[in-house]
Automatic annotation (TrEMBL):
Sequence positions that bind ATP: K101
Organism classification: Eukaryota, Viridiplantae, Streptophyta, Embryophyta, Tracheophyta
Protein name as annotated: Protein kinase domain-containing protein
Transmembrane parts of this sequence: 6-30
GO cellular component, one term: membrane
The keyword Iron-sulfur is assigned to this record: no
Family note: Belongs to the protein kinase superfamily.
Main localization of the protein described in the UniProt heading: membrane
Compartment list: Membrane
Length: 379
């Protein structure tokens, strides 16, 4: 009987030793993983540089990177938006990055800011712009992204005449599918799930193969946009915001689906969501397209710059866009469903023959619609 307390003692000791070793092992592995994934470097100007380790970054030291980054000037600017200015960073003849300088520094931020950035750095997907690292300083922050050679979808569709380039139907369809895949990944495959909150054509960037990459995810949550930036309202951009957002102020995955529907309409019609012509007539792109599609006259709304395109596919994408734009969020599909429907359109095309439309021959109709019919009698 005297053996029992001794036995209990040894069993307890064994359990405690086992649990302690496990915890120590987990801590050790976590620390090693952290060291492997990040390179910390203090800068000369009191900031902190963090680079996430990846294949692309393995030959770069944080030191070289930081020196080049801090030497960026106005002539390196490639764009600007509500959150700050974007620069092109050339490391050598073959390695380039895009550096986004956020207007505010880390002085007014809590530690959650860096935690969010690290979480953003973990996300790797072929339809999402990779965040390679960041630099935090008291008065500004820098985010280091992949450089997207072909700029934004917004510039391709609505840039000044000399910036605007031709996007045929094949390219537009591929962009639609790529962007849907990227957003679907954020919504369904990331743990925790991520709501983008600012889906729009200027946040869909195009790589050298014209593959769509979703950018700026997480930024809307990370920082309140610059108050001077008129197109941005709390989080998100006018023209892309789902109607319920104005009532609730809550960003949801279905709100992203709505914004994605607006991007689909831009791809189909070539028009901006808040085109001046619409505003003058007291309407907007979504309302106008809904009216056109209700009358089964989609061909009148198709971008005249599209050239020859398969009408069945185009109509299919109009139909998906309108599902995304349902006023009641619960009637909208999820992004995974949107992606499936888009892919199905090509599969269906392999079955029966679908008629093609040459939008060039109906140019005069499109011009009529755009210039006179918006908001009034459509036809
Ligand atoms: N990774 C990148 N590679 C290449 N160009 C980029 C990259 N990120 C941004 N840009 C360019 O810089 C422009 C400004 O980007 P930014 O994200 O700061 O603002 P935005 O998306 O246009 O507007 P907002 O800040 O209101 O969301 C983009 O339109 C794009 O042309």
């Amino acid at each position: 009987m005297a053996y029992v307390p001794v036995l209990v003692y040894y069993i307890t000791l064994g359990c405690v030793a086992f649990v302690t070793t496990k915890i120590a092992l987990i801590v050790f592995l976590y620390r090693r993983w952290q060291r492997k994934n990040q390179v910390f470097q203090e800068s000369m100007s009191g900031g902190k540089m963090v680079m996430f380790r990846s294949q692309m970054m393995q030959y770069l030291t944080a030191d070289v990177f930081l020196k080049k980054t801090l030497r960026l000037t106005n002539k390196d600017i490639i764009g600007s938006g509500g959150y700050g200015t974007v620069y092109r960073l050339n490391i050598d003849d073959t390695t380039f990055f895009a550096v986004k300088k956020l207007n505010r520094g880390s002085a007014d931020r809590d530690r959650g800011f860096e935690r969010e950035l690290k979480a953003m750095g973990d996300i790797k997907h072929r339809n999402i712009v990779t965040l390679h690292g960041y630099y935090t300083a008291p008065h500004y922050n820098l985010l280091i992204y992949d450089l997207m050679r072909n700029g934004s979808l917004d510039t391709w569709l609505h840039g000044r005449w000399n910036d605007r380039k031709h996007l045929d139907w094949g390219s537009r369809y591929k962009i639609a599918v790529g962007a849907a895949r990227g957003i679907s990944y954020l919504h369904h495959d990331c743990i925790p799930h991520i709501i983008h909150r600012d889906i729009k054509s200027s946040n869909i960037l195009l790589d050298r193969n014209m593959e769509a990459r979703v950018s700026d995810f997480g930024l809307a949550t990370l920082m309140e946009p610059d108050k001077t930036h008129v197109s941005t309202f709390v989080a998100g951009t006018f023209g892309y915001l789902a109607p319920e957002y104005f009532d609730t102020g809550r960003a949801t995955a279905k709100g992203d689906v709505y914004s994605y529907g607006v991007v689909l309409l831009e791809l189909l019609t070539g028009k901006r969501p808040m085109d001046e012509a619409f505003l003058e007539e007291g309407t907007k792109l979504v309302t106008w397209v809904k009216a056109v599609v209700n009358k089964e006259r989609e061909e009148y709304a198709i971008d005249s710059g599209l050239g020859c395109c398969p009408l069945a596919e185009v109509k299919g994408v109009f139909c998906i866009a309108l599902k995304c734009l349902e006023s009641d969020p619960s009637n909208r599909p999820t992004m995974a469903e949107v992606l499936k429907m888009l892919e199905q359109i090509k599969l269906d095309k392999l079955l029966p023959d679908s008629p093609d439309i040459d939008t060039k021959t109906s140019d005069h109709l499109l011009i009529n619609i755009a210039s006179t019919a918006i908001g009034h009698e459509l036809y």
